[in-house]
TrEMBL record:
<dbReference type="InterPro" id="IPR011990">
    <property type="entry name" value="TPR-like_helical_dom_sf"/>
</dbReference>
<keyword id="KW-0547">Nucleotide-binding</keyword>
<dbReference type="GO" id="GO:0004673">
    <property type="term" value="F:protein histidine kinase activity"/>
</dbReference>
<feature type="transmembrane region" description="Helical">
    <location>
        <begin position="392"/>
        <end position="411"/>
    </location>
</feature>
<dbReference type="InterPro" id="IPR011495">
    <property type="entry name" value="Sig_transdc_His_kin_sub2_dim/P"/>
</dbReference>
<dbReference type="Pfam" id="PF13181">
    <property type="entry name" value="TPR_8"/>
</dbReference>
<keyword id="KW-0597">Phosphoprotein</keyword>
<keyword id="KW-1133">Transmembrane helix</keyword>
<feature type="signal peptide">
    <location>
        <begin position="1"/>
        <end position="18"/>
    </location>
</feature>
<keyword id="KW-0808">Transferase</keyword>
<keyword id="KW-0418">Kinase</keyword>
<feature type="coiled-coil region">
    <location>
        <begin position="360"/>
        <end position="387"/>
    </location>
</feature>
<keyword id="KW-0175">Coiled coil</keyword>
<feature type="domain" description="Histidine kinase">
    <location>
        <begin position="551"/>
        <end position="646"/>
    </location>
</feature>
<keyword id="KW-0472">Membrane</keyword>
<dbReference type="InterPro" id="IPR005467">
    <property type="entry name" value="His_kinase_dom"/>
</dbReference>
<keyword id="KW-0732">Signal</keyword>
């Protein structure tokens, strides 16, 4: 680092302008500014404001000098837009990236360094991906790859492999992530055996993304790459890498149940971020949130609330709306666990409102992207049509030299026919485009309706829970819990509808699993009663699914209340499957079976409780035009035969 040279130049030229300096002096001073900016992006003297200041000074000096040094400006903007730098505000960097590329394009062709152009495009592409703009990001990435596709140097090939891995992994499609991981592994092994200048930064990127990838599927691999990162850490001078390691280590320890050790790593994360004035990045929010999770798990609810509130406030300051909604959900959860249902309900409503806005914006953005892809496809089709017309025209001209009169007449007729056909095709394409757009809008509205219905049912369920907590009569409390479960069984239907690919049908096996987990939880029977759902995937229309869901809810509730009296454990088995050919001839083609290994029920035994559940089951059975039977066979076996309704 040539710090003495910088201060000497600064003293010499502090009172002069770019116009007063020679070209050599401008070049020397701008490089000194750039080196000073790079100096302040490293620990222990890291300072983002100073880095921005000196980068801006270097850019201003070069931009105001004559002749303009395009190559120096392009090199400077490569440092400015480098995401490992993180000096300028993220939105500002997005606007600076095209400026850097424009300077590169103005460099004479015989002086252009393709690696410089590649770096500028890769920086820009990654910014677009992180900002949620995959299409321009993909175009920039392909343009960058084209620059170095023929460069045989091994250090360049490793750079390309690393950036391919980063890009495909952050593109966030599962199949692309698999490709990205393979590239990252290959580049990692290459860098481990090399001594290239960018080795440490490339390995840090690879270890990070590999740790993320294996977090849920392979904890041993996660431990391995975290340990690799820890050994590399002393050689890294970027504080973002250090804070990432401390946060990820703390997060990983929480998943392993080592709360005290995790708390120390997360506290260290917060301290480092505050020491370097990095409290505006989302790691700062999530470090507080995870400490809140620890206190919540340990029963320190007041401390948990304080940390969740700090995370929420930090998120609001930088307008990360999705994070803010997530932290509001955390606050709802801790108040619910405390039994403060009033505040829990307030936060749940606040979360629902915030999340609804995010979901609508996300769906609208998805719809706009689909329209953009449709327009691109239409342009490609128009281009193909024009190419075909040109081919026909050339053939017609060639034939015209042989049979001018006849071919000319035929050509004119064919031209008129093509014009009519093109006009009809254009009108049809326009109508199809409008129809696709209308269908997409209707689907978006229908999903939003299902989402709002589900949210409203959750509010009703929360109100029932709040009311039941204030009632002392056990029988009334039991009725409230049953009503809450009925509402929840219908709410799950609407949740599956807006989350799934189909808006008119439900996959029942997954629905039964979610329903039984909720009922077991409401009766505090998770450790005592086991529910098994041995059936293949089966799809029903919405109306049939609602009726079957309510019947199953009542039968599970009855089994939990009465089937295991005097028993310490038991099993309930649920299945829904096609019936035999004999049953089909009788008008039914599906059978719902719910069997328990409890104490059983005599055929003539009267219903216990209020009998409302039995009345509801009978009513729904008649509505399905089904046949319901009870049997004692080492417990109670309930069979419902009914006819499946075709999905529209």
């Amino acid at each position: 680092m040539r710090t003495p040279l910088f201060f000497l130049l600064f003293i010499l030229f502090t009172n002069t302008t770019a116009q007063d300096l020679s070209t050599e002096q401008v070049v020397a001073l701008s490089k000194a500014y750039q080196e000073k900016g790079l100096y302040f992006r490293e620990m222990p003297h890291f300072n983002r404001d100073s880095t921005v200041f000196y980068f801006d000074k270097a850019a201003e000096l070069l931009q105001n000098s004559e002749p303009i040094q395009y190559k120096l400006l392009a090199n400077l903007y490569r440092d400015i837009t480098d995401r490992s730098n993180r000096s300028h505000n993220f939105i500002v960097v997005d606007s600076l990236a095209p400026i850097g590329w424009s300077y590169y394009e103005k460099i004479p062709d015989n002086e252009k360094d393709k690696v410089l152009g590649y770096d500028l495009l890769i920086n820009w592409a990654l910014i677009k991906i992180i900002r949620g703009e995959p299409k321009p990001g993909l175009e920039l990435f392909e343009k960058a790859m084209d620059l170095l596709k023929d460069d045989p140097r091994p250090e360049i090939q490793l750079k390309v492999l690393t950036n391919k891995g980063r890009f495909y992994y952050q593109y966030e499609l599962p199949e692309d992530q698999e490709i990205g991981i393979q590239y990252l592994k290959e580049s990692m092994m290459g860098y481990q055996q090399s001594d290239y200048p960018d080795k440490n930064e490339a390995l840090a990127i690879a270890y990070k993304l590999l740790t993320y990838y294996f977090e849920d599927s392979n904890p041993d691999s996660t431990d391995f790459y975290m340990n690799q990162f820890r050994m590399l850490l002393p050689e890294l001078t970027n504080p973002f890498h250090h804070t990432w390691y401390y946060y990820s280590k703390g997060n990983h320890l929480i998943n392993r149940g080592s709360y005290e050790e995790a708390k120390s790593y997360l506290t260290q994360t917060i301290k480092l971020l505050e020491d370097y004035d990095l409290t505006t990045i989302d790691t700062y929010q999530f470090a507080h949130s995870r400490i809140g999770d620890i206190y919540k798990e340990e029963g320190g609810y007041d401390e948990a609330i304080a940390y969740y509130q700090k995370a929420k406030n930090s998120s609001i300051e930088i307008n990360t709306d999705a994070n803010t909604a997530y932290f509001i959900w955390k606050l709802y959860g801790v108040y619910e666990q405390m039994g403060d249902y009033k505040k829990a309900l307030e936060h749940y409503i606040e979360y629902s409102e915030a999340n609804n806005i995010i979901e609508v914006e996300r769906n609208e953005r998805s719809l706009r992207e689909s329209e953009l892809q449709m327009n691109v496809l239409q342009q490609e089709q128009e281009l193909i049509a024009k190419q075909q017309a040109q081919t026909i025209f050339i053939i017609a001209l060639f034939l015209g030299t042989l049979l001018l009169g006849l071919v000319y007449r035929n050509y004119r007729l064919k031209q008129k026919s093509n014009q009519k056909l093109e006009l009809l095709n254009g009108e049809l394409a326009h109508k199809n485009e409008l129809l696709d757009k209308r269908n997409a809008e209707n689907e978006l509205l229908l999903r939003e309706i299902h989402h709002r219905v589900k949210n409203n049912m959750e509010v009703v369920s929360s109100l029932l829970q709040l009311q039941s907590s204030q009632i002392d009569d056990p029988s009334v409390q039991e009725a409230m819990i049953e009503s809450q479960n009925r509402v929840h069984s219908m709410g799950i239907i609407h949740q599956k509808l807006y989350q799934g690919d189909q808006l008119a049908s439900i996959e029942m096996r997954d629905y039964f699993i979610n329903l039984s987990e909720n009922i077991l939880d409401s009766f505090n029977a998770n450790g005592k009663i086991k529910v098994e759902c041995n059936m293949a995937k089966l799809i029903l229309d919405v109306d049939t699914a609602v009726s079957i869901g309510l019947i199953t809810n009542e039968l599970l509730t009855n089994a939990l209340k009465y089937a295991f009296e005097g028993k310490d454990s038991g099993t309930i088995r649920i299945s829904l499957s096609p019936v035999s050919a004999d049953e089909v001839r009788n008008g039914s083609d599906l059978q719902l079976l719910i069997r328990d290994d409890g104490i059983g029920k005599a055929p003539d035994q009267p219903s216990k409780g209020t009998g409302f559940g039995t009345q509801l089951i009978n009513l729904l059975t008649r509505q399905l035009d089904g046949k319901l039977t009870y049997e004692n066979n080492n417990g109670t076996v309930v069979s419902l035969l009914f006819k499946n309704t075709a999905i529209a």
